Amino acid sequence: MATFFGEVVAAPSRAGVDDEEELAGEREETPEDREIRRELEKKREVHILWFSKLSASTGSFTDEQFPCSKFILAIGHNSVAFLSSFVLNSGCWEAAGSVKLWNEWCRTSNTTSVLPTDAFCLFYKLISDPTVLLCQCNCYVAEDQQFQWLEKVFGCMREEDLQVTILSTCPVTDYKTPESTLTLPSPFLKALKTKDFKETTCCPLLEQPNIVQGLPAAVLSYCQVWQIPAVLYQCYTDVISLDTVTIEAFKPVLSSKNLKSLVKDMSKSAEILKKLVTTNEIHNNIYT
Amino acid sequence: MFVPCGSSAPPDFEGFTLLLPAVSVGNVGQLAVDLVIFTLDMPKVGYFYTDCLVPMVGNNPYATAEENSTELSINAEVYSLPSKKLVVLQIRSPFVNNKYRSFCQTLLSWVKSSRCAKVILLSSSHAYQCDDQQLHGTPLRYLFSPAIQKTAGELMQRLNWKEMEKVAAYPGVNDTEMVLRIPGGGITTLLFSERLISDGALSWSLISSCIHPKNVYLLTQ
Prior knowledge:
The complex is a heterodimer.
Chain A: H1 19-26, H2 31-43, E1 47-50, E2 66-67, E3 70-75, H3 77-86, E4 93-100, E5 120-126, E6 129-138, H4 143-154, E7 157-158, E8 163-171, E9 188-193, E10 211-213, H5 214-225, E11 230-237, H6 244-248, H7 257-260, H8 269-284
Parallel strand pairs in A: 2-7, 3-6, 3-8, 8-11
Antiparallel strand pairs in A: 1-4, 4-5, 5-6, 9-11
Helix pairs in contact in A: 3-8, 4-5
Chain B: E1 2-4, E2 17-21, H1 28-39, E3 44-48, E4 56-59, E5 72-73, E6 76-81, E7 86-91, H2 100-114, E8 118-125, E9 140-144, H3 149-159, E10 162-163, E11 167-170, E12 174-179, H4 188-192, E13 203-210, H5 215-219
Parallel strand pairs in B: 2-7, 2-8, 8-13, 9-10
Antiparallel strand pairs in B: 1-3, 3-6, 4-5, 6-7, 9-13, 11-12
């Protein structure tokens, strides 16, 4: 394809398989190709480490699967900071597990003492009711790892009466609307829910032709296919870094059935939020 | 894998015609399938749940009223119209890196287990790759598997469509070895290769167009 300046450039294709890959596909895979592919797949495997497996006599986790009535998942640093400030601050939670993964964008840390700038994916369970599980996912889960993440996390849960809540953020530039973007009240919340989610959402539903991608889409798709009630709250924001205005845009979600009973003490939230944002600013400063 | 909607018994597709798009240049096949589903008001009967496609979700793209606008749609869904013995697989996102081959295997396995009688694949190709001959006449091309060659050949003559031309494997060097190349056609060539279509009883037809946006209309006439 020639541009107006006369240069010849390769046209982008939405075919999903580019011509070089197509030609490569026509060749048989050699044993060396298979070995390289296996090694790469092994390096990109997602591992879940559960910190404790409680005995069957306490009526809690079994070796294979544990009962889960509520699963709350925060994806991205603003959603994670929201749950840290408004839900995890009550002191009623303990660390339950972590995800170990590697990809070209991040390697998750193993420790539970993490900074907002670290890449981590940690699970917490409510001490008074271990069937309530919360996940703080502050790392990039690549496309080829999302299915694995899903199967390994949900594969550990006994999904009877399970309700899932997902929080994530997205740039407002991705939001498609016939209205002028100058008048959009950014940040704002939009929701998507599965067929089996019967409650009222805390904000309007996401209109067509907008779509959601990435790990939030993978989790919601899983829940839709396997008939699990689930809701995704997506915050459209014009700030890409950790930001108190974006974090506080999630506040309507605190009135939802899944989260209402988990919010104990909001008085310390502002202080925790300020500390998180300040810590992030210090560690993101290129001069330190 | 195919997962039916709801808890009812899985639908029976024996003897049905399966229509599906290749994720190809201009999304022509996918747009045509959208028109078929919307025009025939086909109900959703299940999901094609796979790790080979990039995940995506959104609300119902075929909504006609407030009531049905809030149904969640995912990246690969199955629609069916038993009165016309038609089942449609819509694919809405591209392949995860290096997973297209695995998707073809999964797809073929499902096609065989569902006992569909015919499969129609809608695809497209880059117009700038056309040779001098292809620039004239209809931009639409077809390709049939051996099982359907005789029966559908007459229909193609009436429609004045042309069979997909093969091109030289090594142009300018050796013109004797001819191969099927559909640049921008995604998994089309892979699905039609002899290695994958080994079941002669299953009829496959490919309908492909060289991409100009107007060809989406031509394909659905």
